[in-house]
Design goal:
Number of strands: 23
Structural class: alpha+beta
CATH superfamily of the largest domain: PAS domain
Number of domains: 4
Shape: extended
Number of helices: 19
Helix content: 40-55%
Strand content: 15-25%
CATH architecture of the largest domain: 2-Layer Sandwich
Largest sheet: 6 strands, antiparallel
Radius of gyration: 36 Å
CATH class of the largest domain: Alpha Beta
Low-confidence stretches: 435-439, 608-613
Distance between the termini: 110 Å
């Protein structure tokens, strides 16, 4: 028998067991791929169920906040009804107040004194099942008032540890449809939310055909008996699917994701086919190599075959001499390839590990940025509405103080004005966490600002805590809000104080720093860096990740609002910089605030403010304000100061008044208004079409930059005297006519 045949038989004797082993491996890979798909789907469904709970928890938090209203303690249900109406108008829902027996006291979808329909029995049954102190998420029901499929969240309103009322928030199931819009499930997946009775509440596809139907079959029995699991079956649409479900712990509802069975199997089939083709390719190469090697000597063939097998396993190839130049070259090349493969494998593994770590870090940073951005928008909007309320109060109180002659009344008004100032400070903290505003930014000497704030900071510290200042020479000027700057320093110092109940030290240093390369979110350039470090208890990674969230605090109730670090972060972002936080347990905390350098020299000192009486020369003024309360208080205040005031409810009405031929010496307009024309657009239109008119804009919060030459911006809530002084100054300032 020829050596070629013998070697071929030998090769086949080796390859046949390998083929059998590969077939077993292919089957194992297929089964493993199926199991991995199921596990991945299980994790996805768990995460999606928590998303449903999070959406419900957000509504629950609104009810708890509303339940803390003072009007309930005073028994003023009509006032509480108005508060509930305002909240329900922003959440697209109805709020219902019940007494502790479950009787309905009012429903915000109906007038306060309207005759109320009977209560939904399902909610009362759940209340009896879960007890008086639990938060209840109802099953799906058809609302007799809104005539749509709805569900409700009910929380107890407790005083003294006992429930005295129950607050319901009734919502359309369309609210839950938005969950699917945000999740963006693959087009061939079907997401379904069912209540605790198995009725479909929301569905990612054809929701109008399935919402309100009760599921049936083995999967429904499985859902009723288990908190999570997997089931092969048929969807309501008749399609063969593999369903994965997980019950949300808070709402007791179940999130189901259905995937066509053909798609579940396809991943395993693809992996199997790839492995099979690769195996066939490798086996073909082995047979071809065996036939080629068989043309040489038996000994050389065996040596080279063993070298090839070692190469396939990734083992080292031992040196060998064949006394044949070509074979020696092949063997040397195999040795080199073995070393390169081993080195390349190690390098590839390292790069993969680095890439995975970078991706995780980038994802965490992106999620944190998105979260803070969303919270910033929310707090900014709240601050805007709050400032409008404060504007009404401060103007009304000042007018009352000017017109009243009774000392007792003036004393009460002064007390109310101090309360309004406290509200203004709270709104200022919320605005600092929101998006950038340029109305209050000033170019300042930060070294002077820090020195000026030192008495305030030292006064907030006990005697067992030492505050040290390290101020580098030649600090660059920066643009910031001085009040927010001092508040940010005070918040940071007080946080450090609370972290050192036994005493310690705080180091505050200020230095210039130049970034040669951009470091998200900072661009390359010159910055002033303020560093505040303490020797306190420090924070864990979990606490550090939430420390910049508004209202997050580790302090006991009444000892902290959770707005200290968020205010400092908002101040830094408002000033065009950022805040970084580093802390470890028992190693203290360090906060770095980067503020961009401002071009130009230090500003000149501001002259002392001169008080002026709230009166001015006769002039005509157009007041553009969409808030009824502000209009009803600011208008008489301006008329009291001697102005002839005309009112427009929005920018569109103001333009119609001006187009009709009316002319005014002054225009005072809000910025954020409904309609096609906001305050900034109105100012541009007046500047272009009605030159020679003085324009003053006022705002409680806006994300838009005015950027119109000659247009003054006044921040709400403004003092009546400040407003009159601004208007006087505008009347005295010449305006270029078109």
């Amino acid at each position: 028998m020829r050596i070629r045949s013998r070697l071929l038989i030998l090769v086949l004797a080796v390859l046949i067991p390998a083929i059998i082993t590969a077939a077993a491996g292919i089957a194992y890979v297929y089964l493993e791929a199926q199991q991995a798909n199921k596990q991945n789907m299980r994790e996805v469904v768990r995460a999606l169920a928590l998303v449903v709970d999070k959406e419900i928890a957000r509504r629950e938090a609104i009810l708890h906040t509303l339940g803390a209203s003072q009007s309930l303690d005073d028994g003023n249900l009509s006032e509480f009804y108005r508060q509930a109406q305002r909240i329900s108008g922003t959440t697209d829902s109805a709020i219902v107040l019940r007494d502790k027996s479950g009787a309905v006291l009012f429903n915000t979808r109906l007038p306060f004194d309207a005759r109320l329909p009977p209560a939904v029995p399902a909610v009362q049954e759940l209340r009896e099942r879960y007890g008086p102190d639990a938060t209840i998420v109802s099953n799906l029901y058809f609302s007799p008032i809104s005539k749509i499929n709805s569900f409700s969240i009910q929380v107890p309103v407790a005083r003294g540890g006992k429930a005295i009322y129950y607050l319901d928030m009734g919502m359309s199931v369309h609210i839950l449809q938005s969950v699917f819009d945000e999740l963006r499930l693959p087009s061939n997946w079907i997401g379904t939310i069912v209540d605790r009775t198995g009725v479909v509440v929301a569905r990612s596809k054809q929701s109008e055909n399935f919402v309100g139907q009760r599921g049936n079959g083995p999967i429904m029995s499985n859902i009723m008996q288990n908190s999570e699991g997997f089931n092969d079956g048929t969807a309501l649409s008749g399609e063969a699917i593999s369903a994965f479900f997980s019950k949300a712990p808070s709402s007791d509802w179940t999130f189901v994701v259905s995937v066509p069975q053909k798609d579940m199997r396809q991943a395993g089939i693809d992996a199997t086919m790839m492995l099979a083709l690769l195996s066939l390719f490798l086996f073909g190469c082995a047979i071809w190599a065996a036939l080629w090697v068989a043309s040489g000597t038996s000994k050389s063939t065996q040596v080279l075959r063993r070298a090839a097998e070692s190469l396939g396993r990734g083992d080292d190839i031992a040196p060998h001499s064949f006394d044949i130049e070509e074979m020696d070259a092949v063997h040397a090349a195999m040795q080199k390839t073995s070393a390169e493969l081993r080195s390349a494998k190690q390098e590839l593994e390292r790069r993969v590990d680095d890439a995975v770590a970078d991706a995780k870090n980038a994802q965490r940073a992106l999620l944190q940025g998105q979260k803070l951005e969303s919270l910033g928008r929310l707090t900014g909007g709240i601050a805007h509405d709050f400032n409008n309320v404060l504007q009404t109060l401060t103007t009304g109180l000042q007018v009352a103080a000017l017109t009243s002659k009774e000392e007792k009344v003036k004393t009460l008004i002064a007390t109310c004005q101090r309360a309004v100032k406290q509200g203004t400070q709270l709104a200022s903290q919320l605005m600092a966490f929101g998006r950038t505003q340029e109305a209050r930014l000033e170019t300042v000497d930060i070294a002077h600002q820090v020195h000026s704030a030192m008495p305030l900071l030292n006064g907030a510290l006990p005697s067992n805590i030492e505050l040290k200042l390290d101020l580098a020479p030649g600090i660059w000027p920066v643009s910031l809000d001085p009040l927010q700057f001092e508040l940010a320093l005070l918040n940071l110092v007080m946080n450090s104080r609370d972290a050192m109940p036994q005493g310690g030290s705080i180091q505050l240093s200020v230095r210039n720093e130049t970034l040669a390369q951009a470091a998200d979110p900072l661009e390359a350039g010159d910055y002033v860096c303020l560093t505040l470090g303490d020797s306190g208890a420090g924070m864990s990674d979990e606490v550090s990740s939430k420390a910049l969230d508004p209202f997050f605090t580790t302090k006991i109730m009444g000892k902290g609002s959770g707005m200290g670090l968020p205010q400092a972060y908002g101040f830094a972002r408002q000033s065009g910089g950022t805040l970084t936080l580093s802390s470890k347990p028992d190693e203290g905390t360090r906060v770095d605030i980067y503020l961009p350098r401002t071009a130009g020299s230090m500003p000149a000192a501001k002259p002392a403010r001169k008080e002026s009486s709230p009166s001015m020369p006769a002039a005509t003024l157009l007041l553009v304000e969409d808030d009824t309360l502000i209009r009803d208080t600011v208008r008489p205040a301006l008329e009291l100061a001697g102005l002839d005031v005309t009112v427009a409810r929005d920018g569109d009405e103001a333009l119609r008044i001006l187009d009709s031929g009316s002319s005014f010496d002054l225009i005072l307009s809000d910025i954020v208004m409904p309609g096609a024309t906001n305050g900034i657009a109105l100012a541009r239109a007046i500047t272009e079409r009605f030159g020679g008119t003085h324009i003053v804009l006022a705002t409680g919060y806006t994300e838009h930059t005015v950027g119109i030459p000659g247009v003054r911006v006044l921040a709400k809530p403004y003092d009546l005297g400040d407003l009159v002084n601004v208007l006087k100054h505008e009347l005295q300032r010449p305006v270029k006519k078109s």
